[in-house]
Each structure stands twice: as C-alpha cells, then as structure tokens.
From TrEMBL:
Keywords: Membrane, Transmembrane, Transmembrane helix. This is Methionine/alanine import family NSS transporter small subunit. The chain crosses the membrane at residues 6-25. NCBIfam families: MetS_like_NSS. InterPro entries: MaAIMP_sms. It comes from Streptomyces carpaticus. It comes from the Bacteria. Pfam families: MaAIMP_sms.
C-alpha cells in the first residue's frame, strides 16, 4: 500500500474506534434507564 492509503486507513480507524470507545464510556457513565 502507498503511504497515502496507510494514512487514510489510520485516520478512518481512529474515527471509527474512537467513536465506539467514546460511546462506551458515555454509556458506562450515564446508562440509559428504562422508562416505565
């Protein structure tokens, strides 16, 4: 792979994994409570 492709792959992985980790942290700090 070229250098540009590797950089784009790393940026995409940071966006996807960072969003997932951020969502997990947010849910563990403020869990959704079911409404009755």
């Amino acid at each position: 792979m070229t250098g540009g492709a590797i950089i784009m792959m790393i940026i995409a992985m940071v966006i996807v994994w960072g969003g997932m980790i951020g969502a997990i942290i947010k849910l563990t700090r403020h869990p959704d409570t079911p409404e009755d």
